[in-house]
Amino acid sequence: MAANIKQNHHHIVSKVGIIGAGISGIAAAKQLSSHNPVVFEATDSIGGVWKHCSYNSTKLQTPRCDFEFSDYPWPDRDNSSFPSHLEVLDYLYGYAKHFDVLRHIKFNSKVVEIRYVGHEQTEHENIWEVHDHNNVNDLRQAGEFGSLLKGRPVWEVAVRHTSDQSDVVQWYAFELLVVCIGKYGDIPRTLPTYNDSKGPEVFSGKVLHAMDYSKLDKEAARLLLKGKKVAIVGYKKSAIDLAIECAEANQGPEGQPCTMVIRTLHWTVPSYWIWGLPFFLFYSIRSSQFLHERPNQSLFTALLCLLFSPLRRAISKFIELYLVRKLPLNKYGLKPDHPFEEDYASCQMAILPENFFPEADKGKITFKTTSKWWFWSGGIEFEDHTKLEADVVLLCTGYDGKKKLQSLLPEPFSSLVVDSTGVMPLYRGTIHPLIPNMAFVGYIESVSNLHTAELRCKWLARLAEDKFKLPSVEKMLDQITKELQIMKRTTRFYKRHCISTFSINHSDEICQEMGWTSRRKSNWFLEAFSPYTSQDYREN
């Protein structure tokens, strides 16, 4: 910490601390409100990525009714259009005001250090003293996880408050710390390592990460792109949105084409209708998820799943045929080699803006697929030694969420938080069995991350109140391993920790632990053929 920053070593003690006021943070604050939580938000606004990583054209990828809190419907929830990022922010603010969440939030408050003080307890031995920190086998045998609220501080948190022109570091102490800083934003994924004279320093134009671009206002963004040769590295949602903005800034005869540099192709979908059928029928209802492998299956359901595997592959092929027919994927060399199901199972399916391929047909968006590229003074060079001239290179290369998390946590937890496969081992997507009195929200993905986060916050609030007990550390790790093995068998992109093909089963098990019924619909027909939404998980 800088020497000129004032430190207040008097600790403010509270039961629950929450880091981050994005979707997960405000959901956690609402569900844990009886404990009067303190929420630290590094910026001056709630909303997380919707505030800080959105472009002017960014929209939600789903209709409103698939992205809402269970007890706070959208004002116009039957509107089938996709809301803009500003409408999403308005909705989140409405929720936070309605449930008086804002009173818990300290804005412009960045967490700069976390210390574990749980070893100072005296009531019973602490597993972190008894066992070798680096021996996971010892930790597996550590027994019970214990209560989340111990009646004494377990974590100390140093927070830099930057409002009111002051710059003070204040220490806080908490029994439970909920980490909601998310996988996106803050730390851009770094560029590949280049050989000498092949990095961005040799390029005479501008290089920006999508995170930097999202901070530009509308006019500055337009001026950056207008009349410029732009290369966009990436082919996920942010890259596609950026290509549209680039094409729109370059209309007319003076306009330059924008080139998307694509290392990994992914399936894109024009709308939530496939061959005239609603998309949810294929993956988002209980009967369709019955075809997919899920944890803790009985022998009978596992055999049925094996029997139905050709049907599962046929459904993926059925969707692929539609997409190849509906979109000019072959014309532009954009048909992925892997099945559609692998992108859906890793939450990487992007909804295309209506004007994406029309702009490509006009020559405003062009494509280059390559596994390797590097800079030269005038742009980008590819492994086939062709060169692309560029004035601006925009990197839609994602974020390093794990690095962001590891830089915040102290050892040994920093080393334990991600396992050897690169995945965060989280029980119910929330509790790390080897990190005491800490919870993580927003680190598993599904079709609706808001719904996923809210249900886990409800589960966490009941766990904090000791309304049920966690299994042993070893049993939790075994459950996590089962889920990870399913992801590995379903998609090569398993590190994204996406549960979309068994999301209903995941929610069922959470409901059972909370003592809720897992069958949330009013009759068997709806249970089998109606999609599950957050409205199905309102309080009993």
Topology:
Blueprint: E1 6-19, H1 23-31, E2 38-40, H2 49-52, H3 85-98, E3 105-106, E4 109-116, H4 127-130, H5 136-140, E5 155-161, E6 168-179, E7 206-209, H6 210-213, H7 218-225, E8 230-233, H8 237-249, E9 258-262, E10 268-269, E11 273-274, E12 277-278, H9 280-283, H10 286-289, H11 299-307, H12 309-326, H13 340-344, E13 350-351, H14 356-361, E14 365-369, E15 373-376, E16 379-382, E17 387-389, E18 392-395, H15 401-408, H16 413-416, E19 438-440, H17 449-464, H18 473-490, H19 503-514, H20 524-529
- Euclidean distance between termini CA atoms: 48 Å
Tally of individual helices: 20
Structure classification:
alpha/beta
Helical content (DSSP H or I, runs of 4+): 25-40%
* Spans of at least 5 consecutive residues with low confidence: 122-136
What is the percentage of strand-forming residues? 15-25%
The total beta strand count reads: 19
How would you classify the quaternary structure? single chain
Largest sheet: 7 strands, mixed
Task: Give the overall silhouette.
Answer: globular
What is the CA-atom radius of gyration, in angstroms?
24 Å
Mean pLDDT metric: 89
Characteristic terms for this protein:
32% helix; seven-stranded mixed beta sheet; 20 helices; five-stranded parallel beta sheet; FAD; FAD/NAD-bd_sf; NADP; 540 residues; alpha/beta
